[in-house]
Design goal:
Radius of gyration: 27 Å
Number of helices: 27
Order of helices and strands: HHHHHHHHHHHHHHHHHHHHHHHHHHH
Structural class: mainly alpha
Shape: globular
Distance between the termini: 56 Å
Amino acid sequence: MAKPTKKNNKKKKGAPSKPKATGPFWKTPLARYSLLLLVLSFLVFGNSISNGFTYDDKPFIAKNYLVQQGFAGIPTLLTTDFWAGYTSNSKANPSYRPVPLITLAVEHGIFGLSAPTHHFFNVLWYALTVVLLYWLLQLLFKDRYPGLALGAAILFCVHPLHTEVVANIKGRDDILALFFALLSLYLIVQQVQQKKGLVYLVGAAVAFFVGMLSKAHILAFVAIVPLVLYFFTNAKPAELLKMTALVLVPGLLFLGLQSAIIEGGVVQVVGALENPILAAETTGERWATIIHTWLLFLQKLVWPLPLSSDYGFQVVQPVGWSAPGVYISLLLYGLLAYLAVRGLRTKAPYSFAILVFLITLAPISHILFPYVVAFAERAMFTPSWGGLLLLTLAGYNALEYAQGKGWIKQVAQKHRIGTILLAVVGLAFAIISFQRNPAWESDRTLFGTDVKTMPESLRLNLLFANKLIDENTKSQPVPMNAELLQAKEHLDQANTIRPNLPKVARAYGNLYKTTGAFKQAYQYYDQVLAAEPSNPNVLFSNGVIAQMHKDLTTAENIYNQSLEVFPNYPVALSNLGIIYGSTDRLDQCIEVLEKAIKLQPNLRSAYDNLERAYNLKGDREKAAYYKRLRGQLPQE
């Protein structure tokens, strides 16, 4: 690696620079480039603001009754699991992340249920994270590597891997976690270099705690704090330990709080459909597959295409030790480890960048524990800043080396070449990101786009088929049209990839229920119930069929069965309310319908039926109240 410019060689490593008189902040290069990064963030990701609620946005906000309570839901969000407000029965992976949910609840309390509003704030938080990363890198590198901080921040800003966390509202947890982790790190460096005082110490501890309340994976920053201080400050061992404790204590406090709130603790339930590494037949094959998968982490940093919302079953496949990719992966990561260790003694910046990348990659590397998926673009968000810093350093050092060899004659020429390279790579990344954002407009656009990219994905075939079926589901059966035939094709593909899977059988049942082929629907639902006797979704679907056949007694019994499994099932409550209303049990009808809209405030049919129920009871005031609420719901 090339050495820094000569004018800095005489300076003691890690020594803080003397403050310069720069005038008002808004006239400084730091302010100008910060504004540039803010604008660039909105130029690249601003077209995601018009998107709707997609994929994980449903449990995160669109069907999260606690978030939809606005300010009133905040106390409960602080004391419950991340998924507690979701109106599905899925709580397979409990976690404690109240801060991103609270930000959404505040937005909902002010602006109502508005996808563009939440997308706007996602882009804003992302832009602020980019700026904060620039500030931190500028603080660390400005005297030794002029322009490096801005270059790395630009690549981070436009990188296509980040489209998932920005364009998917659910990505708010990753964005906020990294933002507050970087803020904590920035305040710590400022405190050590310039002795800012108690406010910075408290601010660093609070910021890290808030970051942990956003997503717990940033606990890895406990190891990054001493690295930053070792590489870039003159902190003595005692101060280094003190600053590490400044983030370790809030981290441990969070873990204790999480254990107290989540009964039984956080247990990751990982399946082979989401994480195909678990489909490996032997321990040796499993480790070979893990190492092989690590190649994706490096490849996607350098060339992110193709982009996909799923890297599950059949996209990633188990491999043995005979696969060449296993040894290529070992060679590359071995080289990174060697360079990291070699640069430790001399405090080489490339060593720091490698260590940041590897440390933040550890939680998703499958070494410490099986991660919930084999690979996910959103999971690369936090490690990417270390990886992109390393790539920027590599380019910077290559130009320094070329100048040292005389291949580049003038400093101005070196700067022009560096600017051109950054512009070309940055523009390519920005175009890819900009073009990817619209895919996240809706479930239909996302799954329809990605299943073409990854036709071997079981989950994408199933998700796209389910979406086509849902969009054709009416109160009465519909003919087998072109979209439903397309859904069947994708279900057939999913069934070919993994035969006799209950999730696929349930989707077949929904398809035939939608078309009125109830006998076939029952057959598929029976397959699901044979494997999962208490599946509330299938019980609900059987209830719908009975209700469509006017067999209200059977439908009522089935809905009650599904509610015994999952009491907070709003559509089951709503349909049960319809049965109560049609059988003159108005008080029970009103009770379950009001519970349904409390769980899912945007359940339109429940408002209509409450209006009818109160009219039948002669309570015109309450009927008008629910009619008014129905009219205030956002258009679908």
